[in-house]
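Might you be able to check the backbone structure tokens below? Thank you kindly.
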Amino acid sequence: MYSQLSLLVFMSLCIALHPGLVLKWNEAGLSNYGIHIKTAIPYTFALGLCALFAMAAAQSLRAMGEAAKHMRNLLNVYGGLMLVSLLSTYGYTLNTGLKNVHIVLNIATALFQLSAALWMYGTLPRSRSNAVWLGVLSMGFVFAVIDYFKVLHVLFTAQTLTGVGFGVLVVHAVRHFADPSQP
């Protein structure tokens, strides 16, 4: 929960400080908040705390069994991807090579979130709520593909939908593994 709340609160602060980056027709991506003086610190807290709390959740998840082991691995990989994405943000505007590394890391993160969400959905008890959040994430992924192929520039929308869908599913999954009586 702390991981996803950190991401939400600090990214919301970034948007409040500089709304023109993403709230326009030709949307920029969230990484642009990491390269502006006004928003670099809250952006760093958003991704950094998200990563650290995800890895802490992996360490504190005491549930046993193969599925719980996969959930711990999922949280650690997610935390690692958030950290390397954060680190790649600071220099991605310096040259094409660093930009390409940043893009590849973010594509890997999106693919990871989609596959992890599908796994979590398959592991969790069936509920309309989990189906809705998987749908939100999937819609975000479709928007990411649309943006990548330059059909429409909707990167912020894609990242927001994917992040929110994934965030809710990961919180539901951790709660479920911590206490299987939780839906």
Q: What stands out?
A: Residues 47 and 82 are 6 Å apart (CA to CA). The chain has one domain: 2-178. Residues 2-178 form one domain. The longest helix spans residues 96-123.
